[in-house]
Amino acid sequence: MKMNWFYYSIFASIFLAVMFLLMKFLMNKGMSSTSVAFYQFVFSIIFLGAILFYNSPKDFKINGFFIVILVVVGLLNALGNFFLFKSISLVDNSGYAIAIANLNVVLILFSSIFLFGVKIDVLKIVGTLLVVSGVILIGLK
Questions:
Q1: What is the pLDDT of residues 92-109, one digit of tens each?
Q2: Considering the entire predicted model, what is its pTM?
Q3: Per-domain residue ranges for the chain?
Q4: What is the longest distance spanned by two Cα atoms in the chain?
């Protein structure tokens, strides 16, 4: 059976949940959010080296426009992680901070309609509203 996007998303969710729990564990033990971000970057570079080693150089040829977009992606990733790590370090339950940060799904969903011509039905809109409602409830004191 070939896996579709849904199964890959489930695996991503599990791996990312464990990653965030381990990050919160480190921060609870006294490691600063900046240190966690730095070491995550260092080990990501090592992982990138392994990817480059095991793949053909032709797989990585890109044009100048793509490089500009990827630099912007890198900067946005660094900023997003900085603020996410800071919020995780300041909250008792890191799930709260991650749930709020993952409201990006709403921005992505509706932006995809305009940018990529994605069709959306009423069921997806209702699901999105339920997600937003859940995050609002999490944010209430």
A1: 999 999 999 988 988 898
A2: 0.78
A3: 5-91, 103-141
A4: 53
